[in-house]
């Protein structure tokens, strides 16, 4: 993995002023993944938006980790259903144009 696509968890926690324990808990729930290189833990930069959303849910709305996990899974299902509807709509439009 290219190191430019990783950010140190320590740097992330300092920048966002969030406890390391919160980020570790997200990993334990399977909501985010770490990469470990040279004894250092890193986050993939493509996860930053997701982590920021989870931080807002937890700190701004006081939702516990179980709730964040449930919300995350529901949002993934909604996204999959929206993709499926979009695909079916495109197929229907293509069929109607023939």
Automatic annotation (TrEMBL):
A family per Pfam: MerR_2
Keywords, sorted A to Z: Coiled coil
Coiled-coil stretches: 71-98
Designated name of the protein: MerR-like DNA binding protein
Organism: Winogradskyella arenosi
């Amino acid at each position: 993995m290219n190191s430019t696509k990783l950010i140190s968890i320590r740097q992330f926690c300092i920048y966002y002023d969030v406890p390391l324990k919160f980020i570790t808990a997200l990993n334990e729930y399977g909501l985010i993944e770490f990469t470990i290189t040279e004894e250092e833990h890193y986050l993939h930069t493509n996860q930053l938006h997701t982590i920021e959303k989870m931080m807002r849910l937890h700190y701004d709305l006081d939702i516990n980790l179980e709730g964040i996990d449930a919300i995350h899974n529901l949002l993934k299902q909604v996204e999959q259903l929206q993709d499926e509807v979009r695909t079916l709509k495109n197929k229907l439009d293509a069929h109607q144009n023939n």
